[in-house]
Amino acid sequence: MAFLQFERGGQTVRVGLSKGELTVGRESHNDVAFPEREVSRRHARIFRNGDVWKLVDLGSSGGTFLNQRQLFKDFPEILKHGDSFLIGPYLFYFFLEEDMLTTLPGFRPRVEIDEDSPSSIEGSAASSGYGSLSVRPEDKLNGILKINEALTGGFSVEATYPRILDALMEIFPQADRGAILIVKDFGREITSVAERYRRREAAQPIRISRTILSNVLKDNAAILSVNTSLDPRVADSDSIAAQSIHSTMCAPLLSVERAAFGIISLDALDPRRRFSTDDLQLLLAVANQASHALENVRLLTVQLEQQRQEEEMLLSAEIQNALIPRTLPQPPGYKFFGSCHAARAVGGDYFDCFEMPGGKVCVSFGDVSGKGFPAALIMSRLSGIARNVMHYTDDVTAAVRQINSLMCLNMVDGRFVTYILGVIDIAKHTFTFCNAGHIPPEVRRIDGRLQSLEYAGAGLPVGLDADFPYEAMTVSLSPGQVVVLRTDGVDEAMSETKQFYGVDRFRNLVQSTPPEPELIARELLIDVRKFMPAGYQNDDITILCFGRGR
Fold this sequence. Notes:
Layout (H helix, E strand, L loop, with lengths): L2 E6 L2 E6 L4 E5 L6 E2 L10 E6 L2 E6 L6 E3 L2 E2 L6 E3 L4 E4 L2 E6 L5 E3 L7 E4 L4 E8 L10 H14 L6 H15 L5 E8 L4 E9 L8 E4 H10 L1 E7 L18 E9 L5 E9 L8 H47 L10 E8 L7 E8 L3 E9 L3 H19 L5 H13 L8 E9 L4 E7 L5 E3 L5 E3 L19 E5 L5 E5 L1 H4 L10 H11 L4 H15 L9 E8 L2
Parallel strand pairs: 3-4, 13-17
Antiparallel strand pairs: 1-2, 1-11, 3-5, 5-6, 6-9, 7-8, 7-10, 10-11, 12-16, 14-18, 15-16, 15-20, 18-19, 19-20, 21-30, 22-23, 23-24, 24-25, 25-28, 26-27, 26-29, 29-30
């Protein structure tokens, strides 16, 4: 019969599922009722559907979490043996079998490290492959096959531990209980990750000698020991069966580098069915296969997580690229060209260029401090705020002050944006802009001379001071002039010899290139990339050029 197990008030509670369904909630008519406010009145339902059991959230306010993943409302999901689910502060475990009790971290009974256990070592075997091939080869093969069968389709390390114990209890019928312990901090911390009990009477704290554990970890060896402590309640009895004499086998779980990352421990409580040295050899072979399986699951988990992150980054890059305009305004007599190249999948550089009422064009250009995903999130926020603010005004001074005020709300400490916001008046041939801590724009004149548009009213980067009094500058745009905006990824591009591209190279390139916005932007990007080592880019590179035709 299937059952649920959870801890309440320091005690382990076990609830059978003989009725075929069970409800959990705060109201008293539920099969399992809790008074805590985190539990909704009708929180969740467990029910049988044919040969499977399912769990469904009934629209709870706090949610129901199956294996740390929140369930959708009214959408049942299948429960598997050993699954855990969280309702309010209560962690439930679901089990299909009644004759065996399984516990996971946080439950009693538990594993205890005995500092002074009266144990004697009866045998040991070095962990080298599958042990002696002459000892019970058929049993070893069967044990390895059982481990492989038990772990087929496992994609979670946490879910793999109970499966290993299930297989071990089948391989060793004399074992009454078992545990898997994981080693952390170079052996200074040993934590139980799964426990298994053949019957309820065996569900007492598992005590393992620290000396035995130390020897297993130090020597990478499997150890067979006998605990000869006498139960004080039957100290006068002559019956050996009444004494707490039991045998224990411990074997290491080894990584591919032959470093112990865990221990398998099995107990036989009946002195008439003690483990033998042949059993130790068998455990050694099975533990070796379990180690390989756990390593494979771990590596697969890492690979899947990396794949998931890569897919998320690619999706993020697509979303960010959608924020960069694919086509730029081309009003009569003017040309625009821009490019944005992130150092990683996503970046913090940004530009936007769009037409406004009254024959004007808005230019929005920024560089978020830092790189990667955090910078990209701030960049996307700036993009939305700038577009929204410029929908209501063409006054760049008022707009930048408003954008800065909004960006300062909930800005992450240490983050800021160097930013230029400008408006080109096509009719008047003027460029009015406000500079918030960014590299000043450069104007290439018709004769090739460059003018840096620096001015006293340039202010702090956006996101640092919500009340900063930004000021604007206006310049006239003559025929043949080109305005060049760039991020510091251009000037700070680094060569193989750790030299910066620098302002001088930038100015020389712009001066020597014909005054065409697209040509200047493309030639600049090519030159910067030739300057850097092949395939290397240390920062985001963004360039925006616009100019008036001759």
